[in-house]
Design brief:
Elements: H1 10-16, H2 27-35, H3 42-45, E1 50-58, E2 64-72, E3 81-87, H4 102-111, E4 114-118, H5 130-144, H6 146-149, E5 151-161, H7 163-178, E6 185-189, H8 200-204, H9 214-225, E7 250-256, H10 262-274, E8 279-284, H11 291-294, H12 299-316
Parallel strand pairs: 3-4, 3-5, 5-6, 6-7, 7-8
Antiparallel strand pairs: 1-2, 2-4
Helix pairs in contact: 5-7
């Protein structure tokens, strides 16, 4: 039986009609997708006064983890700037540190933020907590080099989209539990949070082609977790199963109403509130997974991006006390 589903936004529906869609992902398809060239960063930097630096840090197991650092250039470069530490999407099996880079670069433009993006290792070659540990080691480097980078260590924001959103949530939990580094806020953009794949929205967006389907989600999680039993899955990997969501930084969560991750994202915000934390939640009517990254020119995408940026403005530049 096919479940009823929310309608797509009309503008998005027209654009999606021309996009090749899949319903499932497997090892052979993944190998083919990985052969496709990744989107380069250079076109995004054209017209921006940006200094770029490439860094390699050591993972917890000694592996090399590449980071790219993008800073406002030259004389315009601030001191005590905010930092956005970015984790890319790709279902934990695809993508690189330049994926969806246009999103944090908007915050470089708006806030003079230093943007650091991390090339965490991918599943199935890397499994378990390796991916989030890679992100953590990169974040440690950022905090340790804050002065050199011109960063205010009290204004480090962690952010990511899709799988990167899930890793962002896991990273915030890991930093809280380890006592460092300090994180000012986390931005979870349609995050991949729950390996169980049992919500209503997971079922609604299975059995039919899409940008990211329930079947593709199962493949991504299976690639990361292998044969790990449900009760043994770490909350750093699948944040929805973390027992305690207290003590997290201010959180922004958004999703589309017409996507797999909608319900797990709503549930995560609800649990943060229940733990006494602060979260802002937006569910964009008619948005499918990745809608604003794929089609930023549409009205609903522009609204989603504007809402995130406005929230960050409030977090990074709080109103003066009366």
């Amino acid at each position: 039986m096919t479940l009823a589903r929310p309608d797509l936004d009309p503008e998005l529906r027209a654009l999606l009609a021309d996009m090749p869609l899949m319903s499932e992902l497997n090892a052979d398809l993944l190998a083919q997708l990985r052969l496709l060239p990744s989107a380069p960063a250079d076109p995004l930097l054209e017209g921006r006064a940006v200094d770029r630096r490439e860094v390699t840090v050591s993972g917890a197991d000694g592996a090399e983890i590449p980071l790219s650092v993008f800073s406002p250039a030259g004389a315009d470069r601030p001191t005590g700037a905010p930092c956005v530490y970015w984790m890319h999407g790709g279902g934990m099996v695809m993508g690189d540190r330049f994926a969806q880079l246009d999103i944090p670069l908007e915050w470089l433009d708006r806030f003079g933020a230093v943007v650091v993006t991390v090339d965490y290792r991918l599943a199935p070659e890397a499994t378990g907590t390796t991916l989030v540990e890679d992100c953590y080691q990169g974040l440690l480097w950022v905090a340790e080099h804050a002065g050199e980078l011109g960063i205010d260590p009290a204004r480090i924001v962690v952010a990511g989209a899709s799988a990167g959103g899930g890793l962002t949530a896991g990273l915030a939990l890991m930093a809280r539990d380890r006592g460092a580094p300090a994180i000012a806020a986390q931005v979870l953009i349609y995050p991949m949070l729950d390996h169980r794949n049992v919500t209503t929205s997971s079922r609604q967006y299975s059995g039919t082609p899409g940008v990211w389907t329930g079947e593709m989600n199962e493949f991504g999680w299976r690639s990361v977790l292998g044969d790990t039993e449900d009760g043994q899955v770490s909350g750093y990997v699948s944040p929805a199963v973390a027992d305690d969501l207290s003590g997290l930084p201010d959180t922004y969560i958004d999703a589309g109403s017409a996507e797999v991750f909608r319900d797990e994202d709503v549930a995560y915000a609800t649990r943060i509130w229940a733990a006494g934390g602060q979260a802002e939640l937006h569910v964009w009517a008619g948005g499918f997974h990745g809608f604003d990254a794929l089609y930023p020119q549409t009205r609903v995408s522009a609204a989603a991006r504007r809402a995130r940026t406005d929230w960050l403005a409030r977090v990074l530049t709080p109103a003066p006390a009366a």
